[in-house]
Amino acid sequence: xxxxxxxxxxxxxxxxxxxxxxxxxxxxxxxxxxxxxxxxxxxxxxxxxxxxxxxxxxxxxxxxxxxxxxxxxxxxxxxxxxxxxxxxxxxxxxxxxxxxxxx
Length: 103
Fold this sequence. Notes:
Shape: elongated
Strand content: 15-25%
Helix content: 25-40%
Order of helices and strands: HEEEH
Distance between the termini: 20 Å
Strand order of the largest sheet: 2-1-3
Oligomer: single chain
């Protein structure tokens, strides 16, 4: 039987999972140019390197060494809002656990 405590545990694991493996974007900043490209998902401890995804970078903007990677906070925020919303829905639909006094 699903309890409210189980719902909280699953949502905490999902929330932490989203934070440990966030969405990344490559950022190119040069004179008059600002380009962001999707870099996929990766561990927070090892950001993706532009050299490993040369095929996704625009060829006309210059060397891949001019690119950096950053966490896509807008997509991560949407993920966290969805986890919180699903937690709220599950919390509402899961019945209260019945405790027996004196047991």
